[in-house]
Structure formats: structure tokens, C-alpha cells
Amino acid sequence: MKMVDKVRTVLSTLGGEAQLGDIYEEIARQFSMSMPGSRRAGIRKEIERHSSASDLWRVNRPDYFYSVYGKGKGVWGLRHH
Q1: What is the CA radius of gyration of the chain?
Q2: φ and ψ at 66, to 5 degrees?
Q3: DSSP per residue over 20-60, as a string?
Q4: What is the per-residue pLDDT across 18-48, written as a single tens digit (0 to 9) for each?
Q5: The dihedral of CA 67, 50, 28, 80: what is its sign?
């Protein structure tokens, strides 16, 4: 399963919105993964790559996530498609 899909699964489990720290913890728990800083950075990057609220998003990518309280606040939501 790709990391972006793991994030989608976890956000759904967490009720559709969560702080980054809670997303990391739930990914670690559900998928039995360690959570070093490099993995956390990779997860943030995948969220940002798949959110039109981010500078990393491109129109050819799915727009799965939204920033709940605005850019830089660290709280993400799952768009319902």
C-alpha cells in the first residue's frame, strides 16, 4: 500500500481530521511502522503533494486532503470523493 493510501486510511479511522502527530502515531500503530524523522517528513510530503492547499500540489494529482485551519497549522482533513 502506498503511503498516501495509508494516510487516507488513517484519517478515515481518526474521523476525517487529525493533527500530524496523531496521523504519525496511527500510521505507526496500524501498519507496525517505526516513525523516525525521515518517515514523518515523507508522510508530510505525501499529504502536501495530494492537497490543493499546498504549494507541492499539481493539477494532475488527486486532491485528497485539505488544511483544516489553514496552511502551516498541522491539522489535515480527508476530502470525501
Answers
A1: 12
A2: -135, 155
A3: HHHHHHHHHHHHT----HHHHHHHHHHHHHT-TTSTT--TT
A4: 999 999 999 999 999 999 999 999 999 999 9
A5: positive
User: Cell numbers at residue 81, please?
Assistant: 470523493
Q: Quick check: 21 and 72 in contact, CB under 8 A?
A: no
pTM of the predicted model, to two decimals?
0.93
Interior/surface letters 21-34, b for 16+ CB within 10 angstroms, e for the rest: ebbbebbeeeeeee
Under a CB-based contact definition with an 8 Å cutoff, are residues 60 and 73 in contact? no
